[in-house]
Amino acid sequence: MKRTLIVAATAAPCLLALSYPWRDATHGAGAALSSIGWFGFLLALVIVAVTSATLGLRRLRTHAA
């Protein structure tokens, strides 16, 4: 799980940077790359949040027992 967190946390800013140059594109390859970057960023952000919460809860359970 830690590896997943590291990969997602590294990919999130890269995907956001990918979406930025074509933010005003309405069609074509620029719009496709911008959409892939943006929605990939959102997915990576969700993965980071869920993985962080899961690891935090595991740590609390381990120390509480």
How is this structure best described in words?
By secondary structure, the chain is an all-alpha fold. It has one domain. Helices cover 83% and strands 0% of the residues. Helix 1 runs antiparallel to helix 2. Keywords: Membrane, Transmembrane, Transmembrane helix.
Topology of this protein?
Elements: H1 2-19, H2 29-64
Keywords: Membrane, Transmembrane, Transmembrane helix
Transmembrane segments: 35-57
Shape: rod-shaped
Counting DSSP H or I runs of 4 or more residues, the number of helices is 2
Strand content: under 5%
pLDDT < 50 runs, ≥5 residues: none
Largest sheet: none
Number of domains: 1
Q: Mean of the pLDDT scores? A: 92
List how many beta strands DSSP finds. 0
Please provide the ordered H/E string of secondary-structure elements: HH
Descriptive labels:
rod-shaped; membrane; mainly alpha; transmembrane helix; 65 residues; transmembrane; 0% strand; 2 helices
Compact overview of the structure:
The protein is an all-alpha fold and 65 residues long. Helix content is 83%, strand content 0%.
